[in-house]
Amino acid sequence: MNKIKVAFVCVHNSCRSQMAEALGKKLASNVFESYSAGTETRPYINLDAVRIIQQLYDINMEETQFSKRISDIPTPDIVITMGCNVNCPYVPCKYREDWGLEDPTGKNDAEFTKVARIIERKILDLKNRIINHEIKG
């Protein structure tokens, strides 16, 4: 059986969605495959996000992740938008939800840490809902 594919989507695919991809791979890879993407790309992942995820979770996002477009990832079963408001991209899927996360770009480490911890909790909740068949991918 193929694992459910979860895409974490935002406009630039440089911060929140990248953090979610990294944490999804670390915390839920036994339940779903994690991808991130956006409608636009950036030359690199947000360096503050890279540093905070490294400090908190010992994950080096720059080793395996890069900014990519929605067309660059497999068709997802589940789409999680990060909270990009009116600019949230549309991606066809079986299930979709918005996490409504504030973008910490340009803010202090405490804000990045807060967003990372929220993403961690939401990843674990998503994993449990999939395991319990509350969400069908």
From TrEMBL:
SMART domains: LMWPc. Its EC number is 1.20.4.1, 3.1.3.48. This is Glutaredoxin arsenate reductase. Pfam families: LMWPc. InterPro entries: Ptyr_pPase (IPR023485), Ptyr_pPase_sf (IPR036196). The lineage of its organism: Bacteria, Bacillati, Bacillota, Clostridia, Eubacteriales. Keywords: Arsenical resistance, Hydrolase, Oxidoreductase. One of its GO terms (molecular function) is protein tyrosine phosphatase activity. GO terms for biological process: response to arsenic-containing substance. Residues 4-129 form the Phosphotyrosine protein phosphatase I domain. The keyword Ion transport does not apply.
